[in-house]
Amino acid sequence: MLQQLLRLSNDGRRVYMTVVPKADQDAPHIEKKHIVEWLVANNVASFFRYEETIESVLGKINASNDD
To answer: Each residue of 3-13: pLDDT tens digit?
Structure first.
């Protein structure tokens, strides 16, 4: 799921987050720690983070199928 959610820009200077609805209701919630783990794994953990934007996107993703 994180591969659909996060991507590194072509020049390697930015990380983009995209709101992708969960495939189904049983899909696990994505937490901020998952984002941080992805950033570390992709050697971009030192990039500036817009914390409020991360929380907002995670809220939208995790709520997308919670009906």
So the answer is: 788 999 999 99
